[in-house]
Amino acid sequence: MHEAAVVDGLIRILVDRAAGAGIARIVSVKVVIGRLRGLDPRQIRGCFEILAEGTVAEGARLDVVAVETAARCRTCGRDYAVPRFRFVCPACGGSDADVTHGRELHVESFEGIGAAADIGTHDDARGHAAP
């Protein structure tokens, strides 16, 4: 299950970014994951709940945004959705394409509550993970 490794990296990024922003507790996280990554959003959520225990992200709401696969035909230049991983251009029938969406994997944003002296105020911080 590579979801656990991905979530472990996600937690590390969140802990680092929260410390840098003076955030004592993360309350929500938005993660963008392309379908080509082959990650199961339910497993991501389950791993997040377990691996966030004891960190500033414990109890945070995790929103997973799934990005459908899309491509651009190298033959005719048309952009198209890629159903069921079939890279066939609907305009010319070509199968030579560049992936334009579907490989994403990053923290879009997270929201947290500041240090103990600032409880009740919300700071918005953003972090990004490399694909």
UniProtKB/TrEMBL annotation:
<feature type="binding site">
    <location>
        <position position="73"/>
    </location>
    <ligand>
        <name>Zn(2+)</name>
    </ligand>
</feature>
<keyword id="KW-0533">Nickel</keyword>
<dbReference type="InterPro" id="IPR020538">
    <property type="entry name" value="Hydgase_Ni_incorp_HypA/HybF_CS"/>
</dbReference>
<feature type="binding site">
    <location>
        <position position="2"/>
    </location>
    <ligand>
        <name>Ni(2+)</name>
    </ligand>
</feature>
<feature type="binding site">
    <location>
        <position position="89"/>
    </location>
    <ligand>
        <name>Zn(2+)</name>
    </ligand>
</feature>
<comment type="similarity">
    <text>Belongs to the HypA/HybF family.</text>
</comment>
<keyword id="KW-0862">Zinc</keyword>
<keyword id="KW-0479">Metal-binding</keyword>
<protein>
    <recommendedName>
        <fullName>Hydrogenase maturation factor HypA</fullName>
    </recommendedName>
</protein>
<dbReference type="Pfam" id="PF01155">
    <property type="entry name" value="HypA"/>
</dbReference>
<feature type="binding site">
    <location>
        <position position="76"/>
    </location>
    <ligand>
        <name>Zn(2+)</name>
    </ligand>
</feature>
<dbReference type="InterPro" id="IPR000688">
    <property type="entry name" value="HypA/HybF"/>
</dbReference>
<feature type="binding site">
    <location>
        <position position="92"/>
    </location>
    <ligand>
        <name>Zn(2+)</name>
    </ligand>
</feature>
<comment type="function">
    <text>Involved in the maturation of [NiFe] hydrogenases. Required for nickel insertion into the metal center of the hydrogenase.</text>
</comment>
